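Students often ask why we bother encoding 3D structure as a string. The short answer is that it lets us treat folding as translation between two languages. Here is a chain of 221 residues written in the first language.
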Amino acid sequence: MRRFLLMVRRDLRLAFRHGVDSLMVVVFFVLAVVLFPLGVGPEANILARIATGVIYVAALLASMLSLERLFQTDYEDGSLELLRLAPMPLEVIVLAKVCAHWLTTGLPLIATAPLLAVLLNMNGDGFLALMAALALGTPTLSLIGAVGAALILGSRRGGVLLSLLVLPLYIPILIFGVGAVEAAMGGYEMQAQFLILGGLFLGALPLCPWAGAGAIRQALE
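And here it is in the second language, the structure alphabet:
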């Protein structure tokens, strides 16, 4: 556990040293949401109807911006080969990097989401559900994205390939995340959607680090 925390701390320090990536994620999230009222018009009813989907889709796309560099920098400077030789399973290293990625991208997105929900005239009954759905969904996005980021190591035009790999896997998280918030605003039972989001997270938690570690080993050989 101590080595795991040291690994998370290392990645957090690198992320804060190059803070542009984390700032870019939040700026993209805000701009993507702000553009919708300009495109569909300022009518409050229309904005309230599309608010949940717009915010969740924007958060999904924003979380992908920094995925390409999750392992790429360490791969290019040789740090990834040294980490592979460290007395710590590669799966744990992948999980530590996913935790650092979520702390620098997912957590700021969750903190920013309520402000954008107010901008889109979202029903106040859905605020807590929105934050809970993002809190359950964004870690799964980071876990799945880590597998994609490991698979594109050493490839050209990795960003395009990464999008093609992970976007289809993001669709269930989007569907049930938005469904939970819509159910909360409509006064319906939302337990089923949250249980599915939790199940997706619990399923991705052991599988994605294992798959990501396997892809990294293949890239380093």
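Translate back mentally: The chain has one domain: 2-220. Keep this in mind for the problem set.
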